[in-house]
Amino acid sequence: MKVLVVNCGSSSIKYQLVNMNDESVLAKGLVERIGLDGSVLTHQPEGKDKVIINADISDHSIGIKLVIEALTDAKHGVIASMKEIAAVGHRIVHGGEKFADSVLITPDVMKALEECIEMAPLHNPPNIMGVNACSKIMPGVPQVAVFDTAFHQTMPKEAFLYAIPYEAYEKYGVRRYGFHGTSHKFVSQQVAELMGKKLADLRIITCHLGNGSSIAAIKNGKCIDTSMGFTPLDGLVMGTRSGGIDPAILPFLMKKEKMTAEQIDNYLNKKSGVLGISGVSSDFRDIEEAANAGNERAALALDMFAYRVRKYVGSYVAAIGGVDVIVFTAGLGENSITMREKICNGLEYLGTRIDPVKNNIRGKAQEISADGSEVKIFVIPTNEELVIARDTKTICGNLA
């Protein structure tokens, strides 16, 4: 069974074709600048040279059509025809309270996705465009929605509700949803396997650290709490996002700077985080380079990020009654040796001990805690596409 995994952004399509017989990636790629000048498809077949295809890609349907053509091309394709694609799995950012697991996409599901647009106006519309594009290009091929929010639906009410009038939750669904759920789910399962333990017996804190970052507290295989909230803006300091702040700052700045609601939203989502503090970049690699060169604000941005991670880890130890293992994943968590060390060196009170030799890795699944560390520390590369492919196989494999 071959599954096409699709992740649509407003002007992009990431994709992988996965052979579910052995979970091997046959090809992957990226369509960029959809609807803009200079649109391009970068296609990488397994074991072959990368292919760059420049084309006028005015919408997602044309993008999906080009992806199918690349996958079936006589020279750089990996399948004989589109008929070999048994199902399509889509990353959907927001499923609200309607979906606690992945689902087969039906007209009713599409209606529910549209109802969630106002909670994820930047993400759900392109996700929906991707589903519609695949329906147009591949009619009759089953499609599955895999939600960023689903894994966090096990949070108890005391964790997910905000202390505002309850009517806001009843009328508008205002609550904490959490994101990166597919990643948190995958790495928690992987670390249990690597430790030779049952997921149901572990207390895990997973740290998905990158330009967008979140932490999850997982007990007995279920998410108890997570740092992102109603939107992905809450929680940790991030690349360009402020993370959690005093909400009274919003009307204060709007009044002082004469900002509209749209402007303050852009201010907090696009101009804040380590970019706003450092004044250098939203890329942690650039900030680290600047800090090493003596830039005090860059160093401060890194210190703020590490401090906030440690603070969340500590609070989540309280939430799940202790911790057995801490996992680092995503771009920064998997690749930044110095940031992992900076975070862990403030957690010794938990019984954590990081091994500097073991920690000297990038993008590799490995324990990095020192011998005798009471709390284990692991780096686990995330693989959200594989989770999507697995869920798609499970759901579509049950279709009569």
Outline of this structure?
The protein has helices at residues 60-72, 107-115, 124-137, 157-160, 167-172, 181-195, 249-257, 261-270, 273-278, 284-292, 296-319, 330-335, 337-344, 384-397, and strands spanning 2-8, 13-19, 24-32, 40-45, 51-54, 85-92, 103-104, 143-147, 203-208, 214-219, 222-226, 325-329, 366-367, 376-379. With 400 residues, the protein is α/β, with parallel strands linked by helices.
Secondary structure layout:
Blueprint: E1 2-8, E2 13-19, E3 24-32, E4 40-45, E5 51-54, H1 60-72, E6 85-92, E7 103-104, H2 107-115, H3 124-137, E8 143-147, H4 157-160, H5 167-172, H6 181-195, E9 203-208, E10 214-219, E11 222-226, H7 249-257, H8 261-270, H9 273-278, H10 284-292, H11 296-319, E12 325-329, H12 330-335, H13 337-344, E13 366-367, E14 376-379, H14 384-397
Parallel strand pairs: 1-6, 6-8, 9-12, 12-14
Antiparallel strand pairs: 1-2, 2-3, 3-4, 4-5, 7-8, 9-10, 10-11, 13-14
